[in-house]
Structure formats: C-alpha cells, structure tokens
Amino acid sequence: MTQHDDLDMLAAEYALGTLDADTRADVARRRQQEPELEALIQAWEARLAPLGDEAVAVAPGPELKERIEQRIRTIEAEAQRPQAEQAPTQKPEQAATSASDQSQVATLRRRLVRWQWSTGLATAAALVLAVILAGPLNKAPSDPSFVAVFQEDDRQPAFMLSVDLSNKQLNVLPVSAEPLANKSYQLWIKEDSLGPNPRSVGVLNDDLSLDADALSDYDSALLKRATFGISIEPSGGSPTGQPTGPAIHGYLYPTGQAGAQRL
Amino acid sequence: MPNASRPSSTAAASSPPASSAGIAHLCDLLEHVAQKDRQAFADLYDATSAKLYGAVLRILRDRGSADDVLQEAYVKIWQQAAVFDAGRASPITWMVTIARHLAIDELRRQPKGYREPEESLAQTPDEGPSAQDELHQEQDARRLYHCLDTLEDGRQEMVRLAYLEGWSRADLATHFDQPVNTVKTWLHRALKQLKGCLAS
User: Fold this and answer.
1) pTM to 2 decimals?
2) What ipTM is given for this predicted complex?
3) How far apart are CA A136 and CA A250, in angstroms?
C-alpha cells in the first residue's frame, strides 16, 4: 500500500511537473516498462487537465506550421526511402545499413529508451537503444518485418535486429558494434508471459551473427510485445543464465507501417 | 511522395474553424493522422496549435524555444497518433500533455534563471469558452476548482505554478522560502487531498 502510494505520488508529481530533470527522465523511461505507473500517470494527467485551460491560447507564428509540415515530409520521405530504393536482388543486410536507415536513427532519436535489466545491474549509461521504423526488408507491405536497433549512444547504432514475423526468422546485424576480446554479446528476450526475467535467445557468434531460427519457438504475438536486449557477457555467454553485463534493449516496431496503412 | 488522400467517406471537406472543434472531431482527425493523412494533420494543427502553443509559451516564456518545442510536440503527435486511446484521455488532453512535458523537459535543460509567477496567474481564467468546452469537461473543471479551493492556503498556488508554469520543487522552495523537503511534503499532501476530493 505504501509502495503503491509512493508510486502514485511519483506519478502525480510527474504529471504536475515538479520533478527534477533526472527523475523526470527516469519516470519517462519507467512508464514504458511499468503499466501500473503508466496508468497512474494517465489518471493524474486527467485529474489535472482542466488547469490547462488557464493557459491563454496563443497562435504560433504562421511560418511554424510550414516548418512542422516540412519536418514531417522529411520524416516520411526517409521512412519510405528504403522501400523505394531497394533493388530486387538487394539483401536485407544491405537495406538495413543504407544511409537512409542511418538518418532514420538520427530522426527518431527521441525514441531512445534507456533501460536496465530488472536484475539490478550497473546502469549502462552509455548503452542505449533506438527503435526505428524502416521499410520492409525484401518483403511486401502485407508481410511485415520488424526492426529493432541496439544503440550505443545517441548517434551510432550498435546492432540492428530484424524479425520476419511470418516465418520468425531473425537477423542480427552489427552496425557499429565490434567483436570484443574475451567477451561475447548475448541476445535476450523479455516478455511478461515469460516471467520477470529476460530469457536468452542466444550468444552471438564471433562474427556477431546469430542462428536465424533462434526465435522460432516463440509465437508472433509474443514477439511483437517483447523487449529485446543485447548484453555484453564473459566469453561464451552469461554464466548465470541472466544478463550480467550492461544491456541495450528495445521493442520491435512494425516496419513500413506508413505504407501498409496508407489507403 | 504524394499526399495520402483522405477517404471521401468522412466529412473532410468541411473543416470547421478552430473554435468549433469538438472532441469527436479531434478524435476523427487523430484517427486520420494515424494513417499518415497530412491534410488531417494540417486541420488538427489549425484546431489545436494555439492551445498547445499557449501552454508551452506559458512554461518557457520564450518564443524561440516554444517554437522548437511545439515542432517537437507535433512530430510526436504525428508519430504517435496511432497509440492515442480515446477511451483513456480526451484528444486535447493527450496533445497538451505531450506538449507540456516536452516544454517542462526543455525548461529543466535551460540554465536556472529567477522566475516570478506570471501576473495573470492570480486571475481565474476569464477568456471566452475555449475550443474544448464541452459539457463534461466543464464539469471536470468545476470539480477540480472546487477541490483546489479546499486546499490549505498557498497550496493551490503551488499546484498551479507547477502545472501551468513548470515550476520544480526547487523553484517552489525558493519562492515559498521553504526547504525542498517541506515543499515535497506539502505537495504530496495537497495532491492526496485533491485525489480524495475528486474521488468523493
């Protein structure tokens, strides 16, 4: 009860806006992972919302609308480019590393999520993840692939993970990540129905690849909801069965959503 | 790329002026925005930007950074329209919340300057009915103001300074000349009291 009260007050102060920058960032991150906190925040936003009517409406300058529309055109153009440029023989790997995907990473930097595995490891401050929307990788729009980017900092993606939900084939693609001496990268999956702890998908090979069938035992609906992470482990993988090193994580996002939903 | 054209089945042709934008209309626009309908986005912007900009400007008090934050907010609205859930929030609350939080985050990034409460804060809102003045929202507002009136002296002002102007605990502590922990205690007490009053 007390714990719930504390969480409720955290949600209340987040909605009210009185928290300092670090705590705000922490709450913004946690709400993605904690449905209870998310619900409490939304309840407080709703309670306090009428206060917003006190702020007098002010029309923004007329040029701002054009600026915003231009920004959105750019975002959409970038989101579509991988499809348009994709040659029939092009492999997913090539599409995934195209310059436009890189620029999407920059564009969608706001989506960055900082995260820690729930096992209470040292904060992996330098290791963050972005999830991007990319064009389908060699797939028709009706056959969605999903891409997650595992990212080391705000600029450079470390890995990209694509999963074709129709056949549950995965492809891990190192972008800026390099093989580490005496260390291994390990891919993890976490989803509520799998219990509170991440489950190992597999230890990346020395060339940073991973067996394409490693996710074939999971159903597609679960994969869509799951969080994925890559941690740095002792050579050969985690000795404990849980991530022991800094982790980078993120959700899968439907790719080519714009195209698929366009009427 | 050509603009996605809007399905003709919706009454898109008659885009009403901002002042008559109701909840249902905004929900409808957001639904189209979720499908990357840029005309709907332009209409949504016309109907809501003054409201969002007012909230952001009140917090940041600087048109330059308010412009940037408003852009960021509408990009986010464009990208996240699909996750808007009309069952959980009113469309305008959802949008203002996005803009407000971006503005507060921006404010926290800016170097600390001395902040005085805006003069208009003491006034109760007296401008005409806003675009979102639908009946149940008025009722929500009446209940909230009734409950704010039950708070101890000064606490209502704290809540409004925080919500409308983005003041942090530390800002409030300076203004009310109290230790930060005292402010935290006061805030928690006031918020719990509000919650209880609103639930009764």
Assistant:
1) 0.57
2) 0.82
3) 19
